[in-house]
Write a structure and sequence with these properties.
433 residues, mainly alpha, 16 helices, 78% helix, globular
Length: 433
């Protein structure tokens, strides 16, 4: 498959186009920003809400484990929604399913702001996740429409920079919002952000899947396409490696408000600052990946290094949380979490790229499988981190270490990275057949 990094415009057969004009480059930057905004939807919807989790437990008179189900419901919705929206985008193009999803997500977010009970909040968060899935899965499919090879890996790293602004800024904004209002105000702000993003997509994101490249089949054809993808062992291995790495991330996202604030006594603002610092680490590692490593070091080697660091950081967290290293303060725990989050900047974009390199004509379905597996695994991780209550970090560390070990096993056992060239060639040939 030829590598290309054309400006993000509707597909064209002209592969020898002249250099992009300044206007075309500006259009490409704008589309990059839009795609970054779409991939930022999940961290924006969850991270801005994180500092208010302890407040929700009191406001709605619900235990911490039940409040964490609001995160699980959102993740579950994103997982199931991607499974449906991905094949739809392969059939009808990218714009129509995306705009419908953004509209429904906007309504669900507004309903979260007026939820009268924890049960209704969980239900509205589920709907929010189902509709928000459109932005996640279609953004990845658009990248696959426009880029290939090393260019695709670099673009995913660029997206991590753009979308990484959300987890850096969102908890800070959430902490400041709580100074002037309650947790419901967080969802009001999210509703406004959703409306602005929807308008930007409507005005500026072109259709990237040409009519002749769309699949006219129904559910049966979509399921057949997904079954073919899952039968490709390296694709499934990269999918699972990325999914379990995401579980380590979401274990942190779900448990850290209680670990940092309840166990170590930090304020919501301090938690927000630490969360932002960890997000900076993730973004910086993603940029190191895209600007320095990609094209110089094989994607498999970078992925292996990222998984190794995640495993070591999770091991250190487990030793500290069980007391085997003695009584430790917030600083060592925060340092280990920083290393774990930074390593995810090397892991997630390369796992996605290596999986998508094995498919071309079913990018929506492949993106749906990648997203669904990640969010389903993350949804399982969320309640597990709170299984022993609010006053211990052991479950978080156990879940993170187990996820890292499983991700590494899938990568080594199924992807067989020492056969990268043969696997990539086989995947490309199978996709063309």
């Amino acid at each position: 498959m030829p590598e290309h990094a054309a400006a993000p415009t509707p597909q064209t057969e002209n592969t020898t186009a002249p250099p992009a004009s300044p206007a075309a480059r500006r259009a490409g930057l704008l589309v990059t920003f839009v795609l970054g905004g779409l991939t930022a939807t999940p961290p924006l919807a969850m991270d801005m809400y994180l500092p208010s989790l302890p407040e929700v437990t009191g406001s709605l008179h619900a235990p911490a484990a039940t409040v964490q189900l609001t995160l699980t419901a959102c993740l579950l919705g994103m997982a199931l929604g991607q499974l449906a929206v991905g094949p739809m985008s392969d059939r009808w193009g990218r714009r129509r399913p995306l705009l419908i999803g953004l509209a429904v997500n906007l309504v669900a977010t507004a309903l979260c702001a007026v939820a009268p009970s924890i049960e209704t909040l969980v239900a509205f968060r589920l709907l929010q996740g189902l509709a928000g899935a459109a932005g996640i899965v279609i953004a990845r499919a658009v990248v696959r429409d426009l880029y290939d090879g090393v260019a695709m890996a670099r673009f995913f790293s660029t997206l991590m920079l753009v979308s990484g602004v959300a987890p850096v800024v969102a908890p800070l904004i959430g902490g400041q919002i709580l100074r002037v209002t309650d947790w419901r105000g967080v969802f009001v702000v999210l509703t406004v952000v959703g409306a602005l993003l929807g308008a930007l997509v409507w005005l500026r994101l072109p259709e990237t899947l040409a009519p002749q490249d769309r699949h006219g089949g129904g559910v049966r054809d979509a399921l057949r396409s997904m079954r073919s993808l899952l039968a490709d062992l390296p694709f499934t291995g990269y999918m699972l490696a990325g999914g379990f790495a995401f579980a380590a991330l979401f274990a942190y996202v779900s448990a850290s408000p209680f670990v940092i604030q309840e166990i170590y006594g930090a304020s919501p603002q301090t938690f927000s600052l630490l969360f932002g610092l960890n997000s900076v680490g993730l973004v910086a590692a993603g940029q190191l990946n895209g600007k320095v490593l990609v094209g110089r070091v094989s994607l498999d080697k970078v992925l292996a290094a990222g998984l190794t660091v995640i495993t070591l950081a999770a091991t250190a967290l487990l030793l500290m949380s069980t007391g085997l290293l003695g009584e430790v303060g917030l600083a060592p725990v925060a340092a280990a979490l920083f290393l774990l989050m930074s390593a995810l900047g090397l892991t997630m974009p390369n796992a996605q790229t290596l999986a998508l390199l094995r498919t071309r004509h079913a990018a929506g379905s492949a993106s749906a499988l990648l997203g669904t597996s990640a969010f389903l695994i993350g949804a399982v991780a969320s309640p597990l981190v709170g299984i022993a209550g609010e006053h211990t970090a052991v479950p978080m560390a156990v879940v993170q270490l187990a996820a890292a070990l499983v991700a590494g096993a899938c990568f080594v056992g199924m992807c067989r990275p020492w056969n990268t060239r043969e696997n990539t060639r086989a995947g490309s040939e199978g996709d063309e057949n």
